[in-house]
Amino acid sequence: MLAATQEQAGSVWEVLRVATRLGLTSFGGPIAHLGYFREEYVNRRKWLDEKTYADLVALCQFLPGPASSQVGIAIGLLRAGLPGAIASWVGFTLPSVLALVLFAYAVPAGNMETSGWLKGLMIVAVAVVAQAVWGMAKTLAPDRIRKTMVLLAAIAALSFPVAGVQVGIIVMAGLLGWWLLPRVAPPDTLSLSVGLGRRAALLCWGLFFGLLLLLPLLAQGGGLWLPLIDGFYRAGSLVFGGGHVVLPLLQAVVVPAGWMDAPTFLAGYGAAQAVPGPLFTFAAYLGMMTAGWGGAVVAILAIFLPSFLLVIGVLPFWDAIRRRPAFQAAFAGINAAVVGILLAALFDPIFIKAIVSPLDFCLALLAFGLLMIWKLPPWLVVLVAAVGGWIIG
User: Fold this and answer.
1) What is the pLDDT of residue 270?
2) Which residue range is the domain that position 320 belongs to?
3) CA Rg, the chain, in Å?
4) Which residues in the chain come in under a pLDDT of 50?
5) pTM, rounded to two decimals
6) Count of the separate structural domains present in the chain
7) Separation of alpha carbons 122 and 94, rounded Å
8) What is the distance between the alpha carbons of residues 162 and 256, in angstroms, rounded to a whole number?
9) Quick one: pLDDT at residue 318?
10) Would you say residue 58 lies in a domain?
C-alpha cells in the first residue's frame, strides 16, 4: 500500500519524458491506452505494482471524464506530486493537441463536403463510433434491464437533443441503477492512499461544483470566451465513459452556437482518430476553429480541468466509496445510459451528416470491417478512409 506520508520517488522531468513518449505512440483509444500504461509503468518501470494500478484504473472508470488521462494524472501525482501530475498530463496530451491544431490550419474554408479526403474523415467517424457502441454495449449492458436502459437513453437523447437533457439522462440512469440493479459487493482490493489530505480534496470538490454552477451564469453575459470555457468545462465534467462519449456534448456546445457547422465538426472528429493520445484533445481542434490559438488553449485547459479536480478530490475518499455496493449499482446504470447516448450520437449528427450516398455507406462498411474483423489500428483505418473519400470525391 502507498503510505499517505510517502516521499515522492521520481522527478518531474522523468515523468514528463515517459509521458511524452506514451503521448507519441499510444494509438487505439482509452482501453488501449490503459494497456500501454500498464506495460510502461507496471511491467517496465515498476513505478507501482499490479494491484495499485488496478485500483487507479477502477477509480478513473468510476469518475466522469477521460479515464486514461486521469490514470496518467494519478500516476504522475503518485510519482512526483502535483507537478508530476501536470507533467504527466502535458506529455500525454501535447502531441495530439499540436497535431489537431495543425490540422485545423489545413481545413479549407467553406463547404467541407467539397474536399474528398475530409469527407472520408467524416465517414470514418461512423465506423469508429459504431465500433465503440458495439464494444461498450457488450460490456456495459449485458442483461435485459441495462439493454432496455440503453434503448430508452437513446430515444430520450434523440427526442430532446440538448445538453441539459443528456445530463438528466445520466442522473436518471444512476437512480434507476441504484434502485433496479443487483448490489454486488466488490472484491477486496489493496487500499490506495496518497500524500493529499481531505482538506485539499474538499477544496477541489468545491472548485469543481462551484465552476460547474457559476460558469453557466457568467456565460449568459454573451461574448465568446466565457461561453467557450463553460461549454468545454461542462463537457469535461459530465461525460461518463470518456472518449467517444464526449462527442454529443461537444457537438451541442459548438454547432448550435454557430461556431462551426456539423461537417467541420465531424471532419475534426475523424482526424482525431488518426492521432495518438486522448480523444479529448479534439477540443483543441474545436477551439482553434472557433477562436484561433487562444481558443485552442482555452478549450483544452477547460475540458481537462475537471479531471484534475476530480482525481485530487476523490483519492482520499476512494477506499470508502468503492466498497459500497449501492454505488456500484448506480454507476452500472450510468454506464448503460452512456451507451444509449453514444448510440444516439451515431445517428445524429454522425450518420446523417456523413452518409449521403450508397458509396459513402460502402466506405463506412469497409472501415467498420477493417476495425472489427481485421483489427487494424484506428489511425490506419482513418488513412484508408481519407484516401477512399478522395477517390469517391
Assistant:
1) 81
2) 116-392
3) 20
4) 1-7
5) 0.75
6) 1
7) 24
8) 9
9) 74
10) no
